[in-house]
Amino acid sequence: MKLFVALAALLATAVAIPLDGRITNGEVAEVGQFPYQVGLSLEFKEGGAWCGGTLISDRWVVTAAHCTDGAESATVYVGATKIKEEEPGQHQIYVDKKDIIVHAGWDASKVVNDIALIKLPVKLEFNERVRAATLPKKDGRYSTYADDIAVASGWGLDSDKSNSVSPVLRYVEQPIMASSKCNIYWAGMITDQTICMSTKSGRSTCSGDSGGPLVYKEDGIDYLIGATSFGLALGCEKGYPAVFTRITAYLDWIEENSGVVNK
Fold first, then answer.
1. 210 is catalytic
2. What is the DSSP-derived secondary structure letter of residue 97?
3. What pLDDT does 171 receive?
4. Shortest CA distance to 178 belongs to which of 196, 152, 151?
5. What is the mean pLDDT of the chain?
6. Per-residue model confidence (pLDDT) at position 159
7. Does 51 share its domain with 91?
8. What is the pTM of this model?
9. 218 to each of 3, 158, 196, 231, how far by Cα in Å?
10. Is residue 2 over pLDDT 60?
């Protein structure tokens, strides 16, 4: 996974510990449990990489800038739980680089504005396996989500001993950490544009989960509150908080570039 190694090297120059793009010790997802989850097989001039993403409409996907920056194309897996075999209801959609929008303020050296959008070439038909997550309501009054339980999902490494992404979709449910507590671990890297998840008991996102969803469920609605950004390259089971791009900080940007908004 050259993408994540490169990111770790860049970030290691700015902080005392190396980082990674980073589900360890998670549960196996049931079919249709996370209909908003997509997988991304990304092609670069120097090779390929795997990331996650989230449907926010029948045409748009939110993911991470560090996943898509420089990508020549992407194959978007929708309706999938297994990514190494065919399954009913799974579709793979090719997207050209012209339909990949990386935030103009993305800075790999500082890991800021780690967000991107992908426009699908055709509208999806929603069903029990394919459905968008809901953006937080755009009203200027946003929860910090501190201590709330959220769920992260993806096909990332299922343990620190793994050397390839998981063939099946997995998830963890963990509490959101207050930014002040998270910054004790990440030494000033946590801002109003990021959100942290506790990884106690080694339950965490990991390499291959990048760009994927962090979701808070309220009254039966799946609200997208984060996109997987980074974690500790020394190991996903070490207890360091996993860091996500905070979606409420980018609602204007998402609306401006995709037209998707929850008013």
1. yes
2. G
3. 94
4. 196
5. 89
6. 66
7. yes
8. 0.90
9. 34, 27, 19, 26
10. no
Residue 121 lies in a domain: yes
CA 232-242-45 angle, 5° bins: 65
CA-to-CA distance for 103 and 113, rounded, in angstroms? 6
Given 20, 57, 66, 158, the catalytic residue = 66
CB count in 10 Å sphere of residue 99:
17
Specify the CATH number for the domain of residue 161: 2.40.10.10
Number of domains in the chain: 2
* Distance, CA of 130 to CA of 89 (rounded, Å): 8
Residue 124 corresponds to which amino acid?
L
Give which of 121, 118, 108, 146 is closest to 42, Cα–Cα. Answer: 118
Q: List pLDDT tens digits, range 26-42.
A: 899 999 999 999 999 99
- Which one from 210, 222, 229, 258 is the annotated catalytic residue? 210
User: Considering 20, 69, 114, 222, which one is annotated as catalytic?
Assistant: 114
Task: Note whether 228 and 179 are same-domain residues.
Answer: yes
Separation in Å, CA 160 to CA 6, 81, 123, 168, 172: 18, 21, 37, 17, 16
On whether both 48 and 160 belong to a single domain, the answer is no
- Name residues whose C-beta falls within 8 Å of residue 163's C-beta, 6 or more positions apart in sequence: 157
179 is catalytic: no
Q: How many residues does the chain have?
A: 263
**Does 258 participate in catalysis according to the annotation?**
no
